[in-house]
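Consider this one:
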Amino acid sequence: MAPKGAWLSTWRALRKRRSDFLTFPARAAKRKGMRRALLVTILLAGCGSYDDLPLLELDRIEPAEVETGETLRVHGGGFALGRSPEVVIRGRVHRPGEAPTFVDARLSGTVQSESLIEVPIRDVFVDAVGGRATLDGSIRVAFRTDDDRRDVFSEMRARIDVLPDTSALLRTHGAHADDAHARAAKSFGVELSKEELGSVGVRVASVEAGGLAARQGLEAGDVLLGLDGISLYSWRDFLPDPSTRESTVYVAREGLRGAHALRWPHEVTERPVDPLSLVLFVILGLGLGWLSPLGLAARARPVAVGASTTLVRAGLVLALAALLVWLPELQWTAAWILGLGTFASLSALVSRQRFEAVSFALAVGGALTVMMLTKTASIAAIVAAQSPSALRWYLAQSPASSLAFIAYVYALAAMSSRSGLVASLYLACAAVLGGAIFLGGWPAGGAVGAVATLAAKSAVILVLARLLEVRARTAIACSGLGVALAMMTPFVNLGGLYPNWSALVLGAGAAVVARAVLPPLRHEAAPAII
């Protein structure tokens, strides 16, 4: 016979099932009523909305180059015969030697068939974009419905080059304009051919030896396709955007597929450095370097490394610098970050400590900051964006890169006290990468001089890692703040602080190094006499 507790639990379970069975129809009816209310709400909302209907089709737009008097043809499907379409062209307008602007132009077209609309180009549209320009945006074709409450439309991306006629070009270009074009090309180390190809592209007549273009591999005969968003149809179009500190140039070469993007800094648009302002900000930087928390966080390291370890690291730095200079395949930050990760993992397995992971993360954060500032992962492009002047190195070029450099030095600091081969490989790899992206990289001279210079700058970073010890929290905060500031570069021009920021960093750096090298001044307490 079952115990009394078992019978009681069975009875409670049967009563619960009976209660669920009796209340199930009520719950089902309630859910059904909620579904009906939701359906009615959706229907009412649909009846009250008059959103446009994307029912048309747009296939292509031709021609890509238009001028006054020509016709822009829009191919697609579903165009209404006998109706007047509204054609809207909007987007960013790039003009030679000017900052980009935004245009929203409404044009009238004629429906020729269900798949073709013709839009005449008049002077009003050419004047709206400012004459010679490249419009990069979208085109929208719409027809008004019978109830006049919505549009039937379609939209697609469009890139249109506006080419004024010859008389308009002669009016807008004079001798002074020709001199400006010649100076702009010469500042990048190239001379452009006066021959017009009849299509997109300007041929390079010659390349200055040791110039910026030569350092990036440009050769005579290459064709420049675009500059700062504008398509190049003539040497007269080659005027950089003055609102930026670097230009994006698209280059094509016979025998190579596609176009290659190069970044060229504006040497001709650099603001002159006022000597008095430079001295004042160096003095201010010295004061901040002695008094700021970053200066107080740096102190001399007593740890010593043997002579054999130092020689091994010097040889590794020299070998890696030669590989970076001579092998174009290795001139990408991804390859060096992969090497750093490998050496950090091996070092962690040997030492069984977690610091290698923190060091690797901070090193990657520093490299990522510079990559976001230059908008490229190419080490050659990063080096080209830095002039020989120390004030234009990324060490002092931007607040974001300066903070990233502090975290980068910390990433090497603790590893520098270890004498293992894997740790030496990690240090050499990180030092060479840091020398290229923070200290200007190699010069424009021969390969031997380039290797020697890059190795010397890498050795400077290793020396700083030996002399300075930044607290972990300070390094992590600097790394996070540097990445955050670099992410703000599309919205805030951090480079606008130059040259004041460069001079400030120069003074603060001198103070911090002096604090680390000079022995601390201490007053020893006299022994107590009992």
Summary: The longest helix spans residues 4-48.
